[in-house]
Write a structure and sequence with these properties.
78 residues; two-stranded antiparallel ribbon; single chain; alpha+beta
């Protein structure tokens, strides 16, 4: 048995409700707003150590991926 650290990419969608005069103002309010996402594990088998997230207008553009990781990574504790 050993301890393993697993970094897993997560894809999600948020639907935000806000008031604005135009699409441009709505986009500006979205990206300048104070949005908090809370991550919880619901059992005793997993412990969430860290999470990173950011909002993008587009996640992929051409051959450029803007996300933090693209594939699952597993590292064993020494």
């Amino acid at each position: 048995m050993g301890i393993y650290f697993i970094e897993v990419p997560v894809v999600m969608k948020l639907m935000i409700n806000l008031e604005a005069e135009s699409e441009e103002e709505a986009r500006e309010k979205l990206f300048s707003g104070d949005l908090n996402i809370e991550v919880k594990d619901s059992g005793d088998q997993l412990e969430i150590l860290d999470w990173e997230w950011d909002m993008y207008d587009q996640v992929v553009q051409g051959n450029v991926y803007y996300g933090s990781i693209n594939k699952l990574e597993i590292t064993k504790e020494d």
